[in-house]
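Translate sequence into structure tokens.
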Amino acid sequence: MTQATLESWLRLRAIDGVGDVTVLRLVRAWRGPDIVLKASRDELIQGGCSPQLADAIRRGPDSSAQRSIELELNAIERGRIEVLNLLDPSYPIRLKMIVDPPSLLYITGTLTEEDELAVAIVGARRATASGRAMTEELSRDLAAAGMTVVSGLARGVDAAAHRGALAAQGRTIAVLGCGIDQTYPPEHERLRKHIEERGAILSETPMGAPPHSHHFPRRNRIISGLSLGVIVTEAAINSGSLITARFAAEQGREVFAVPGFVKEDTSRGTNALLKEGAALIERAQDVIDAILPQLEQSSRRRLQPSRAEKVPGDQLGGVEQRVYDVLSYDPLTVDDVSVTAKLPVSTVMASLLSLELRQRVKQLPGQRYLRA
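Result follows.
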């Protein structure tokens, strides 16, 4: 997109009284913002605009808004940020199909054709250790199978989803609820850099926009809109992740949920989704099996059997296998494992160390262990 074209989009968006819905309606009707901005008052009214809206468009952005546009154009050029508009052939096809797609998408990193095979994974910011582990496993296996993992770069489940995909050397996309030149939360700056190397960071909000709370529900419709389906691994009953799941259902996308313990707060949201008809999943292959019928033959051939299917397990020794079989995604202490496996504590600790070195288990604070 040329700078002149981008400026037209920014000018139309900056006009007083022209919101996101109006921008989409005008651009779709007139096939471009520059045509809208050049139209006469009578032409705008004949095209369906109210007299008040036609007058606002003829006036254009006020001087303050125009200065903001100039600053934004300079920031985009300095930051080497790609911006796609809704009419751009490179705009993500699936996202374009939703009722209210973003008129502009700011991008760092790179979007590719591979990203048409995408699935979103979202969930609780205050995720449990088992929730993060399950998320990483699903994400890793889906990425290894050839799917792009989409999430929101938030703490907890979102970060685990991105890390799982990166661990499989797969693609992942993070959608921000702030300007593309911001990182939120700030401690995920390093994770963001890794995502940009193997995927993309997206935002629809203007440059410099802070992470206001009202941006995130809008952000969630993009997460679901980019994806064939949305997986919720952990969520409280009023979680923002359920908003993403609702958007997915409204957009005609698959909704998946991981069941959890009924007394756990972070499982009540996912269990509620299951009651409402979400598909129950336990592994990546469950998701792939549900999505395959939606795909054309060429896309089906790109999906490989999930990592969970291809590698049922390392060749573990007898004692290591006994220890590993005791572990789950609920953290256990060494004593817990020792009692259940009926093995001495010293033997259990040696096996856990070996399994940890082979990245089969993960140690948590307090000498608690779970499957990795």
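Note: The first strand starts at residue 82 and ends at 85.
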